[in-house]
Amino acid sequence: MLSLLRTMWAVFLHTFHRRVTVQYPEQKAYLAPRYRGRIILSRDPDGGERCVACNLCAVVCPVDCIALQATEDEHGRRFPEWFRINFSRCIFCGFCEDACPTYAIQLTPDVEMGEYHRQNMVYEKEHLMIDGPGKYPGYNFWRTSGVKIGGKDKGEAEHEAPVTDLRTLMP
Amino acid sequence: MTSPYPIAMIVGLLIVVLSVASGLIWLERRLLALWQDRYGPNRVGPFGMLQVVADMIKIFAKEDWIPPFADKAVFVLAPAIIVATVLMTFAVLPIAPGVIVTDLNVGLLFFLAMSSLGVYSVALAGWSSDNKYSLLGGLRAAAQMISYEVFMGLSLMGVVVLAGSFDLVKIIEAQRRMWFVIPQCLGFVLFLIAGIAETRRLPFDLPESESELVAGYHSEYSGMKFGMFFVGEYLGVALISALIAVLFFGGWLGPWLPPIVWFLIKMFCFICFFVLLRASLPRPRFDQLMSWAWKLMLPLALVNILITGAVVLVFR
Description:
Number of strands of chain B: 0
Oligomer: heterodimer
Strand order of the largest sheet of chain A: 2-3-5
Strand content of chain A: 5-15%
Distance between the termini of chain B: 29 Å
CATH class of the domain at 28-135 in chain A: Alpha Beta
Number of helices of chain B: 10
Structural class of chain B: mainly alpha
Largest interface: A-B, 14 and 12 residues
């Protein structure tokens, strides 16, 4: 009996505790910066697209929700002709972000993606592209990679030694 | 002796009591939430008060389906019995000096009789649903209510001995010097526990045990019939709170506030206490419940009467 009274008193003291409800939509829950929410495609610091349509994200995706088609522009730079993510399948695991070699695809702490029609849950490239570099500012893949594209020859990338001509190494 | 305007009293009482029962829907949800560190309904109106209206609309609009395998007449009768008996008991409750529908001189006995009739409603509901779980719920309810009724009557005998009458108005009058909770503290506790069991509230809500028996004896009910059980339960809570206030805490007696305010304050405190019980206590097993009633509460009730009778005999 005494334990019952003690329980009732303890519960009664909860009148003076703060309530833990987050009154959505007036208040929003705190999401950490690395929270795996909505997927975006980011750009270089120079404004060009980061995505090189390598298909690594589509391959690693456990539920096959990413689809894309690669193409090249006149400078030899690869980019996706179209890029589609089906968010009704996406499980927000973040494997695509880990697999991407250019920091193009990223997960952001935005979870407000409710739609009335399932067709609106398929995001195309224009819905996924953002204008900034996202979570990784200052990284430009094309400047650091060794690929020869328009404007940059072999041996001209950052941190790259110039090309040695083997024929001039003769003793 | 009845009041001079019986029809007005009856209508007024019905309106007040039904408003209290529907207000209890809101109050219980908000209080339970308060004690569980969350908000209750707070979107619908100011502080969620229009939630009651929303619930009413929902209950009225629900399909009122009678299962084809159920015993139709009894199925429809069961919720009506519980509401009718509880509302009839409100007729003998003194709310303020002179404000009572009928001042029966066996008012307390009338209340005990009506609560005994209430057992029929649950047993019939469980039986007529023709469903294993409803039947189990109905049987548990009948057994529980009958067992706890035995010592409910006995616990009130102490009050009757001290007041010298079954008339509720005379019982209040007899508390002018001292509220009966002080000499009858054991009787108060016993009546409180019996009252909780009679209205099938937590911790004695095994008959409807939401997590164990689907919904127990009222699982086959929908729409307004379910609403009747629901409202009947809240009416029962209001009734037992009012009776505790009248029998043990002096009813409308109090220093400088008007008597009806005192009555409402006391009733409100006990209603909140009922909700606190629901928020805090776990449910006992059915055999624990029954053995408690017969092996602990009944002897205590008899001891209470023994001591009260002895003291009154010696000192008068």
